[in-house]
Design a protein that fits this description.
Structural class: alpha/beta
Radius of gyration: 23 Å
Number of strands: 8
CATH superfamily of one domain: NAD(P)-binding Rossmann-like Domain
CATH topology of one domain: Rossmann fold
């Protein structure tokens, strides 16, 4: 379909043509505050600025260390403050990026200063929406679960919004989390816990496989730097091929598995080592731990029955946490399924929360 051409206003020359037809961002004119401005919050700042969703003047970041505040301000031209309360004052959207164990203290600090119309977007690993609502005394909350590649704008974030959030606020959350890469909103919060075990923890599995393949290549006789490049490019190319083809991984695997060939021999060794079962067990272990952490935080904060944090009978997903792979590799209740480079990282960033 051809794009409609802008009509030139009468009495004006061609040099006065429309400068940009970019749709107005849902964050236009909004103030964004980051509380706990570590690496993931910084990645979101980078994505917002690179995507031109907001201007630097619309962002305020809080951090207790002066050198970190200076680094963020110098790198991105944003305003920084030492006080979390000062950061959230007047903000339309508050990005919560503190460590999970600091949630109760930070909640007591900023909760009384949150207005009814403010949206809080949590990118903490573990706390459920019930725990967040209880800690903050505020029910307009989004719980997001990004992963490590979000630091370069290539992440995967699964998120859930409490019923108290408005359609406009959910659109704002979508724009914010899209700054980290791909994003998916779910209606059942249990899927966020499930995603924590798959996409949230997933880079851990990939990095371990990457490390093992590099070590195997070194054992064969390759210098380590060559082994590294071979493995990285193979994983990246295979992932891009799988994404672009749209074929099932089994179809792609069969394409390169000749009878009696090297791939067939390698696959036999992997299957004999129970690779599929081990991976399934790892995902379920991560899921159970996610549920445990969420339940512990809810208990500590007295979050049971917190208003506005509904969406499923158990926000943390504990109703399915007992299931798991059997000796044959079954996955219990796992049949449910989900419905430009950053500018760099400012120095002094804190390490990401472990997933």
């Amino acid at each position: 379909m051809a794009r409609a051409q802008a009509q030139e206003p009468a009495g004006r020359g061609a040099d006065s043509a429309v400068v940009s037809s970019r749709p107005m961002s849902t964050l236009a004119g909004k103030t964004i505050a980051t509380v706990g401005s570590g690496v993931m919050a910084e990645a979101m700042i980078v994505g917002l600025l690179n995507g031109r969703l907001v201007e630097p003047a619309q962002i305020v970041a809080s951090h207790p260390r002066a050198e970190r505040r200076a680094a963020l301000s110098a790198a991105y031209g944003i305003r920084t403050v030492a006080s979390n309360v000062d950061a959230v004052a007047g903000a339309d959207v508050v990005i919560l990026g503190v460590k999970p164990q600091m949630l109760a203290r930070v909640g007591r600090e900023i909760g009384p200063h949150l207005g009814a119309q403010q949206l809080v977007v949590s990118i903490l690993a573990g706390p459920t929406s019930a725990a967040l609502v209880a800690a903050l005394g505020h029910d307009r909350v989004v719980r997001g679960m990004p992963n490590t590649p979000a630091r370069i704008g290539a992440g995967m974030t699964v998120w859930y919004a409490t019923p108290a959030t408005t359609a406009e606020q959910r659109a704002q959350a979508k724009a914010l989390l899209a700054a980290l890469g791909a994003e998916l909103e779910v209606e059942d919060e249990k899927w966020v816990a499930m995603a924590t075990a798959v996409s949230g923890t997933g880079p851990t599995y990939v990095f371990l496989v990457m490390e093992a393949l590099i070590d195997a290549a070194v054992h064969l006789g390759f210098p380590r730097h060559i082994a590294h490049d071979l493995v990285i490019q193979t994983l990246e190319g295979s992932t891009r091929f799988a994404k672009q083809s749209g074929d099932h991984p089994a179809v792609l695997r069969n394409m390169v598995t000749s009878p009696g060939g090297t791939s067939a021999a390698a696959l036999h060794a992997l299957e004999s080592g129970r690779l599929r079962t081990v991976l399934s067990e790892a995902v379920w272990a991560a899921f159970r731990r996610t549920v445990e952490l969420g339940d512990q935080l809810e208990e500590q904060l007295g979050a049971n029955g917190a208003s506005g944090a509904g969406g499923s009978s158990s926000a943390s997903g504990s109703s399915g946490a007992k299931a798991g792979p059997s000796g044959s590799g079954g996955a219990g209740g796992a049949t449910a399924g989900p419905g430009a480079a950053p500018r760099g990282t400012a120095r002094g960033a804190e390490p990401a929360d472990p997933r």
